[in-house]
Amino acid sequence: MIALAAGQPGFLGVDSVREGSELGITVSYWRDEDSIAAWRRNAEHTEARESGRRSWYEAFVVQVAKVERSYAFQRPPAAQRP
């Protein structure tokens, strides 16, 4: 699905983390709500959602949120520290 999403207008990126077979989170980033709505209407995405409901997931949560600000920190490797 990530490759399919990446080809959609308005797609900005994705972060995904899994812990064993029990817990996972995937966050996709989109330019605007119209892009999100178009992705939801995508036929292959719709089929994947339905398949997931039938076969893979007992439950899941979808949250749509607007990111107002984002920043990051990365410690330099030990060899580069003062």
From TrEMBL:
Q: Which domain of life is it from?
A: Bacteria
Q: Where is each ABM domain found?
A: 4-50
- Per the UniProt entry, the signal peptide is none
List the Gene Ontology MF annotations in alphabetical order.
Answer: monooxygenase activity
Task: Read off the InterPro entries from this record.
Answer: ABM_dom, Dimeric_a/b-barrel, Jasmonate_Hydroxylase-like
Q: Keywords assigned by UniProt?
A: Monooxygenase, Oxidoreductase
Q: Which Pfam families match?
A: ABM
Protein known as: Antibiotic biosynthesis monooxygenase
The record lists the organism as Amycolatopsis alkalitolerans
